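Appendix B. One record, verbatim.
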Amino acid sequence: MLNINFVPDDYIQSSESRRTNLMYLVLFGVVMAALGGSFVSIKIRLRALCARERLVNEKTAQAQDAIRQFEELQTKRRAMMKTALTTAELLEPVPRSILLASLTNNLPEGASLLRLNLVQKEPKQTPPVATSNQYRAAQAKNAADTQPKVSREKLLETHIDIEGVAASDLQVAAYIESLSNSRLLEHVALVESKENKIKNSVFRQFRLTAMLRKDVHLTSRDIDLIRAKREKVVF
């Protein structure tokens, strides 16, 4: 039996063309949707990356500020430490521990220290001799021109008050002689020496005054020797 197609060929071709065009449009829409989705995703990721970059830049700037502040603090700390060391060197040219060790090293056997007091004072000014105003002005000008300026701290005198006990006056005299020969002290003088008695023990309680030399300069080797001798005396 023969199949007779009553549909015109133009209609069939037109229908196939519409289906093909529709398929192309669907594919084009899918591609465009995919491209649009990719574009939106890229934009979102780009914004997220920009936000992270801004955050990283802010943290980097904060870290740089913190580092700069830390460096400034370190610089100020070094300056303060230098100033403190310079002031300590001016006010205390010999550490008190070294001075105490030197005083202990020179003690005779059986003697001991009871009290040690250090006081810094300005040197006493000698009363000026009565002269004419013109001569005094010329003398002051010459002194100012010839003498270098010295800081007030370097002019301070360190007075030392020493109290201790010894077995006899001979030991006190030996201690005074030993301190007079020391590199650290000068003007060692006896203020008081009296006899005290505790139960059956008789001893001499003495008091001395001295001054720390202004021109004393101890090396690290001198300090080590003083400390080593002190440890030997103590132990």
